[in-house]
Each structure stands twice: as structure tokens, then as C-alpha cells.
Amino acid sequence: MTKFTKIISSGSYLPKKVLTNKELESRVDTSDEWITERTGIKERRVADDSETSVDLAYNAAIDAIKKSGINKNDIGAIFLATCTPERKFPSTAVLLQNKLDIKDAFSFDINAACTGFVYALDIAKKYIESGQIKYALVVGTEKITSLLDWTDRNTCVLFGDGSGAMILAASEKPGIISSTIGSDGSYKDLLTVNTDLEYIEMKGSDVFKTAVNTLGKLAKHTLEDNNVGNDELDWLVPHQANERIILAIAKKINLPREKIIITVNKHGNTSAASIPLAFDEANSKGIFKQGDMIMLEAFGAGFTWGSILFRY
Ligand code: ACO
Question: Which residues line ligand 1 (CB under 6 A)?
């Protein structure tokens, strides 16, 4: 039985079209100033009509596979997080597997809204450490703008499209040190896509408060339970929903701004894609060094939440 799992590469993809706050001013009663001040978002990407969450995932996956140096046919499983599947079924993971032309693997989707990628990492880790697979492709992909009511200023300014991916491998040493996931369905109506309306409805300030409380505690416990002092943490790569949420959590664990990867200004909230997108953007710049202690954490509709602590 393999003991540990490590992240060996990352990849990402953003659709070409940039939608700025200024452009949103002409669609709804909002302002660049309001959006920037309340969320930190300046712009986001929007996929065009012909692009699906599978197309976005394909580009991110190809990028991660290329950088990993492994043969795509060594991938034993694809775990794909999305809440904007291309079809109701087959799963987006299976459609991606087909597009990548990977034959000898199993694939399935995970829907935990914005926490989906952390859930997918947790599952991939367990399959690898059981010895069932050696390499996993883990993807977060969203065409979340397809769920927006472009007349609702409370939600349409917050989200963007994109995809991120990682290759995970069996390893003799960590790797992933801890993985925690949780959920509480009693919050189901605070952030939801109702099947009749099919667009995002949100009680923003309730989501904000619960996100800060839950993630603050989760970050603290993740570090304490693994005897990692906040001074030993090199990087926090949080879910990118709102810069104020991110900074409030950092304050709770006394983490300086310089140790936090923030991309929400350019991507908006890309739901399950946000963590691997932020991670890959920093990784591509060579910001992470081998052996760095990194924490990922996410919060999403459900509510769902999760954290991953690992050495890179
Ligand atoms: N432009 C201008 N005014 C706006 C806009 C906008 N785009 N959106 C809302 N407002 C108005 C509201 O109508 C309200 O006006 P009112 O007082 O006249 O009723 C006022 O701004 C204040 O609204 P609040 O909701 O109190 O503003 P708040 O400071 O809480 O910021 C925000 C709103 C940005 C949505 C914040 O609550 C937030 O970020 N919440 C969490 C959202 C989130 O992270 N969602 C996803 C997390 S989980 C996941 O990723 C799936």
C-alpha cells in the first residue's frame, strides 16, 4: 500500500473574453468602485456560447499533463469537480476522458459547488493511498456564467468562467499531510440554483458571515491538528470568492498578506475552478519552492467546506 500522495503538476485555462466592471455598469445598476471595494474583483472571464465546461477542462488538463511529464495513459482516474456540467449525463469527467482519449481509467464528477476541487483532491488521495491507482487527474471546471441572471446585480458581478487541473501521484513521502471535508445541508437555501429558475440566488451577507466563521475555524484546526505553526505555513491558496473573506480568514490565523495567493481580482469567483486556477497562476510564475508548506481551503453552496495541507 502506498503511503502518501503528492501533487506533481498543475495546469489552467481561461476563456479569452474579459468582462470588466466598467462593462457591467452598462448592464446593471452597479459601479466599478462598489464591486472593487466590496469584493476585490476588477474583471472576470466569460466563455463564449460554443465553449462548454468540458472544453475549458480539456485545455487545463492538457496543460497539467504536459507539465507533469507523465504519459496520459498512466492516469488511472479522472476526478472532476463542477456544478456546470455540459450534460446531465454522461458526466463531464467521462466527456473529458473521451476528449483526452484516455482509455484505461475510470472517471466521475463531484458536485460540492465551490468546494468541489478540495473534495476531488480528498477522493483522489484516498484512491491513490489505497493502491488502486498510481496517477490521478483532478480537475475543477466551470462555465458558471451560464447560471447568472444578468439583471441581478447581487450575483452577476461576482462570478467568472475557467478551469484548473492537477496531476497527483503515489509517493514515498508527503505530499498531502491532511485532508478535511465537511458539509451542512441546513444552509441549502442561502446559496442555490433552483431547478425551476436555473440561475444563482444568494443571501450574500449570510454567506459572507458563515464563510468567514467556518473557514477561519477550519484553517486554525488544520494547522493545529498537524502541529504546524502559522509561521511554518508558506502559502495559503484559498477559494477566490471575495478578497474581504480571504483577508478576514488570514487575520484569524495571523497570516501576512504576502503569503496569500489572490487572483479573485482577475478571475472573479470561478467556483470549483478557483483554487487550481489560483494555484497554477502562482506555480507558473515559480512562486512555490519544493518543500513549501501550502494550505488550500474552500467554502461553497450546501454549505460545503474543506482544506488540504501539503508539502510541495
Ligand atoms: N452594485 C451596487 N450595489 C449592490 C450590488 C452591486 N453589484 N450588489 C448589491 N448591492 C447593494 C445591495 O442591494 C444592498 O443595497 P441596500 O442596502 O439598498 O439593500 C447593498 O449593496 C449592501 O448589500 P450587502 O449584501 O449588505 O453588501 P455586502 O457588503 O455584504 O457585499 C457581497 C455583498 C459582495 C455579495 C458579499 O455579501 C459577499 O461577498 N458575500 C459572499 C458571496 C460569496 O462569496 N458567494 C460565494 C461563496 S460560496 C461559493 O463560492 C459558491
Answer: 30, 34-35, 38-39, 113-114, 153-154, 157, 191, 202, 204-205, 207-208, 211, 241-242, 245, 269, 271, 299-301
